[in-house]
Design a protein that fits this description.
about 375 residues; 2 domains
Length: about 375
């Protein structure tokens, strides 16, 4: 029995992190060839569509000027682009800076309600054909909006996710996190080529305005909720690597742990609110949804079972495998505690792997006990 459990756990972990990515990349290449010849060309715009760029801010006086300059440098017709800043109860100099700006839509409120409520406020005022969502920290490449919008020329596309690029990682932790993000983008692009990817990159994504409506005020992941609204109406959600936003990788594992915990808690919320995602007759990307999003939430428990079941086996191969797991976990934990050990690449990768899977366990606790706060904090 223990041997059967061991192999089920091993295959499950390998499928989630290795076999599924290989499968989806292979399937995407076939799909790309088919779509190249069959892509719909009618129904696009004769001229560029109007766009609203929405940015929700909270106490960002130190970064707001750089974001404003970045918005002014975007290569998109000025008469078609509306830049909308929404202040979620900022108490520093953010509001003062934004009030002095000409040519932008500024929405302010003294209450700190959280990003979802502020996105709803902005959408109420939005009359453009396309809505682009951004964050204040990430900077767009000049042609980012143009590249996002070009994909909407295909009438089957309802939402487009851009690509987040980490600039010049400074240490081993940043490089490891950047490597993981590259791995994620390969999967998302492959899923997009087949049909759709579930969700988008929160710092840079766009949707057709007429496909989306208000989201619940306690929504954790707007970058999944808005694209999902378009997907449910039969439209594709695709990944556009040419639409680039730049950011700096988080060098502190603790900060990355907090970010990942919040994201995974949002995934638990997503599945609890959308049980139809588990129905292959209603969810046309059922395999991608389960393999990429849901199985990732279960991997930490499979790893525990794998460790315990390998210990219970009598063969030398199982003993070696058990010892290898223990060594990897000890090395990863040591890297979490020591900057010197983090300079060892395998140890650093192990620490990132441990941190990400531990985040899934903490995220479940947060979700079950309703400890998710969508309000902005400093």
């Amino acid at each position: 029995m223990a041997r059967t459990v061991f192999w089920i756990s091993l295959v499950f972990v390998c499928y989630t992190y290795l076999f599924y990515p290989l499968l989806v990349v292979f399937a995407s290449r076939v799909s790309r060839l088919i779509r190249h010849h069959a892509r719909m060309r009618d129904g696009g715009w004769d001229s560029p569509p109007s766009v609203t760029l929405i940015i929700v801010v909270y106490n960002e006086e130190k970064r707001i000027e750089a974001k404003l300059r970045n918005c002014r440098e975007l290569d998109y017709p000025g008469e078609l682009l509306t830049v909308c800043f929404v202040s979620d109860g900022s108490t520093d100099g953010t509001n003062t800076i934004l009030e002095k700006q000409d040519g932008l839509l500024f929405i302010r409120d003294g209450r700190n309600l959280g990003k979802p409520s502020r996105l709803n406020d902005a959408l109420e005022r939005c009359t453009s054909e396309i809505v682009v969502f951004s964050d204040v920290r990430q900077m767009y490449r000049e042609d980012a909006i143009k590249r996002l919008v070009e994909d909407f020329d295909d009438p089957a596309v309802g939402a487009v996710s851009g690509e987040l690029v980490f600039r010049n990682p400074r240490d081993h932790t940043e490089r490891s996190i950047g490597l993981y993000w590259t791995y994620e983008k390969i999967i998302r692009r492959a899923e997009s080529d087949i049909d759709s990817t579930l969700g988008a990159t929160g710092a840079i994504y766009a949707v057709r305005r007429d496909l989306v409506g208000p989201i619940p005020p306690d929504t954790v992941l707007d970058d999944i909720e808005f694209p999902l609204q378009a997907f449910k109406k039969g439209y594709r959600v695709i990944f556009e690597p040419g639409a680039v936003a730049y950011d700096a990788a988080v060098s502190e594992i603790g900060r990355e742990f907090g970010r990942k915990t919040r994201t995974l808690a949002g995934n638990f919320q997503l599945f609890s609110r959308n049980p139809w995602l588990f129905n292959p007759f209603r969810n046309r990307i059922f395999l991608q949804t389960i393999s990429h999003k849901f199985f990732r939430l279960l991997v930490p428990y499979a790893l525990i079972v794998l460790l315990a079941s390998s210990l219970l086996q009598g063969g030398i191969a199982y003993r070696v495998f058990f010892a290898s797991q223990v060594l990897a976990y000890l090395l990863g934990c040591a890297a979490l505690l020591s900057a010197a050990i983090r300079r060892i690449r395998p140890a650093n990768l192990a620490s990132v792997f441990i941190s990400l899977n531990a985040a899934s366990v903490v995220a479940l606790h947060m979700f079950v006990f309703h400890r998710i706060d969508v309000r902005w904090k400093r």
